[in-house]
């Protein structure tokens, strides 16, 4: 049982009231909004010539960071590439069929995971010392970093779509080259890339099939 201070107990009580008020008063997303996020959303192959401001990028992160992760570990690290100089540095790491759609994107997010994420646990999970749980188990540390950064990458995509942007996620690149170029002298490793901007609807294809419920799911 975690022993909370009076200040922590007060913060917990306030959080419970805030969340209850939200759930009691907020309406669920309508079908059009769900289509924007999932139902009709598409991975983009081309982009309109429209800028994504630094303020928008910061707003995306401020919402993304609120998504849940194990022990609030928040291992994802983001590099937002906008300049032509840094796009050119990324170019050599891309598979040939990905070059055009990546290089033409207004912003390319390199989503990585920090294997030293537990250095921040004193801030992120202050009521319990969980850092040794990660530092003392390399395999567990890696799986937590990779899994939770993947979750944060998915939150990032949903936030972008919710704010009216489009996404082009991909794993068709050399992680080794990206790590050497953008994360050298750190313990951060690249997970995947996600281009963001305003998509060109003339460059999408028909939606590919998905597995039916009975093919992918079981209620037991």
Describe what you observe in this structure.
It is a single chain. With 220 residues, the chain is of the alpha+beta class. It folds into two domains: 1-39, no CATH class; 41-201, NADH Oxidase (3-Layer(aba) Sandwich), CATH 3.40.109.10. Helix content is 45%, strand content 13%. The chain contains ten helices and four strands; from the N terminus they run H-H-H-E-H-H-E-H-H-H-E-H-E-H. The protein has helices at 6-25, 31-39, 54-64, 84-91, 99-103, 121-124, 131-135, 138-162, 175-182, 213-216, and strands at residues 76-81, 107-114, 166-170, 188-197. Strands 1-2-4-3 form a four-stranded antiparallel beta sheet, with helices on both faces. Helix 3 (54-64) packs across helix 8 (138-162). The radius of gyration is 20 Å and the shape is globular. It starts with 5 loop residues before the first helix and ends with a helix. 25% of the residues are buried. The mean pLDDT is 95.
């Amino acid at each position: 049982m975690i022993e909370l201070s009076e200040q922590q107990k007060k913060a917990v009580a306030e959080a419970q009231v805030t969340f209850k008020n939200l759930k009691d008063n907020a309406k669920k997303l309508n079908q059009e909004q769900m289509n924007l996020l999932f139902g009709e959303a598409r991975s983009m192959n081309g982009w309109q010539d429209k800028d994504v401001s630094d303020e928008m990028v910061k707003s995306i992160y401020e919402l993304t960071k609120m998504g849940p992760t194990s022990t609030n570990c928040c291992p994802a690290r983001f590099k937002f590439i906008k300049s032509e100089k840094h796009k050119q540095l990324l170019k050599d790491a891309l598979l040939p069929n990905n070059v055009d759609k990546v290089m033409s994107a207004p912003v390319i997010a390199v989503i990585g995971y920090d294997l030293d994420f537990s250095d921040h646990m004193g801030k992120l999970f202050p009521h319990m010392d969980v850092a040794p749980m990660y530092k003392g188990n390399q395999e567990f540390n890696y799986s937590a970093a990779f899994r939770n950064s993947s979750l944060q990458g998915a939150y990032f995509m949903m936030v972008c779509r919710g704010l009216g942007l489009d996404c082009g996620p991909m794993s068709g690149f050399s992680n080794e080259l990206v790590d050497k170029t953008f994360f050298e002298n750190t313990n951060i490793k690249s997970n995947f890339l996600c281009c963001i901007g305003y998509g060109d609807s003339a460059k999408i294809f028909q939606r590919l099939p998905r597995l039916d419920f009975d093919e992918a799911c079981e209620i037991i």
